[in-house]
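INFO  loader      accepted 1 record
INFO  loader      residues=680
INFO  predictor   begin
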Amino acid sequence: MYSFRVLSLSFLCFMSMLTTGSRALAQELKATLMLKTPGNTAVTHELKQQDGQLISNKPMPINITLKRTENGGDELITVNIKAKERAYFNLGFSLSTGLSSNQSEFYMPGLWYHRNLRSPLEAPNYKVSKRWNFREDRLSTPLASAFDEQTKTGVAVIHMIPAKGTDVQIQNTEGQIILPGATTVGYMGFNNDASETLLTFGFPFVETPKRYIRKLTLAPSVETFMPISTGETLTLTWRIHKLKAESYGDFVSKLWQYSFDTMAPQPLPATLNSDKVKDNLCGYFRQSYVDRYPLKYNSGLTILTADCKPYGEVQIGFCGRVLLNAFNEIEYGDAHGDRQLSDMGRAILDSWLHNGFSAKGFFHDFVNYSKTPVQMDDLHSIRQQSEAVYAILHYLNYERKRVGTDKNKRQQLKEWENKVHKLLDNLVSLQKEDGHFARKFRDNGSDVDNSGGSTPSVTSTLVMGWKYFGDRRYLQAARRTMNYVEKNIVSKSDYFSSTLDANCEDKEAAIASVTAAYYLAMVTKGQERQQYIDLCKRAAYFAMTWYYTWDVPFAEGQMLGDVNFHSRGWGNVSVENNHIDVFVFELPHIIRWLSTATGEKRFGQMYNVITSSLTQLMPTNENHFDIAKPGFYPEVVQHTTWDYGRNGKGFYNNLFAPGWTVASLWEMCSPERTVNFLTK
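INFO  predictor   done
INFO  writer      dumping tokens
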């Protein structure tokens, strides 16, 4: 019987070629093999490379071969493991990048951007530690990379994961753990403690120095050991990719292209067309309607997945999307002769017209009828005010076309138009000298959060306001926002704080910049239009990094795996909120348009992946997907070991907000809505 020990190795690799094929860099690779026996702590022994073998001066229960070859400009690392007897192992590597640790920034898609300095200390952050390892299923592509803007050099490692993955559930979640079966989930990370930046990777997963287990909660580290039986073999493959880039944003863009080409995600087979999606979502409208308060609404917040009963919280945008869903009901009900839907939608909007505005003419962002007295906080966010006006302008444009020249009916719209016009004037008055808008403000216009990360959320609304009212002040204000966005967000690849329940690097901030640039491109010409197209493309690359290019594996007994859920095309939310969701709204049809406008075919291909994937958890009478009522589309899809405090990987949190999920999928299935507004 061999003594199971941890083995470490340091060796100098051969010359690997840069992607240009014109330069080469000697890279040092260190490997660590950990072997564990039940009840004993793993120990470490050094290995050496000999004739392609990783060997020790002491007997080992497994044989390991390592082969490094040039492949398409990359270096391919192929590791073969064969057990001479049953063992429990963990194999890890660290790769010398040749980059200075003082200058390096990092990119791990969907979780780590720059140095995560926008994130709080309770989430993964460079201030907490300069070295991190994460489970691969936290990442939209299983990739770790580092970039030095001074030398314009970047290095990336990507795990070539099997198409059909597996995972296991574990009872203990910290310390050294022997897995009860096989997994295909490894780990990715970096080590920036010394003078030179190292990229780290290995199998099976470890998470160090902390695990990120739920919102703003770091927990003790974990190291796992996978069993391998006598005679069993295992092959692991990674690619080392080197590239040149002009900036961090350029680096991320090029790596997303590389990731997409390498992972090659394919659309899922068609199941639901847009009409069927909307028909199913109408189940949410019919069963969530609340009309017993001065403000009528579809209940979209703090809903239990177990019963989907309405609740007293109302939100105009963000997670609630009350006003946009009201318009969706009207539009669909009118088109399909469903008087119930159209009457509900008009009743909702009528109640907000008369009861939904603050003293200064802003919408009430949030109302809580479950509190006594009723909570009606007139703290406003630029995002929610913009999303509310967006919805109402679509409604007004629709109604104006529907009623035609009928003077009496046109007069009925006048009250709405007056209030929206005043609100837009209010917004313009809040714009700062440099073009940005405060993230949050009081009803009197004073700032609560003056940061500018939410600025692009107002751009599209201002463009729509100009288009509807013909007031050029709104278009001028929109242009000023994009001047700010270009200088402070896109050029710095600093997309942050669009979500209202987090303050960190997030997907929705990138999507807002994409959308803002798109709207201005749609209403401008010549060189100015091309400028906005270019900005839209740069922001779109960043937005795409949040969306999965691969399918996360699940363990037997985890609902998402049992229903054959595929994560490709779904997006991580933010650094703080490490789950996936269906937040896209207009993004799919924008990237499809952008694919044609710029010739970037990957955008069109990713459009097909996203649109085919996001509807696969649609609750129907036949397939509930752990949601009590049809049409109440799930929100917090927990694809990794992170949760809101309930249920864990493979399940949902017990509370969700279907108001926005329904609105997002509805927008995805309405690609001509914005085009018609802006061009007809």
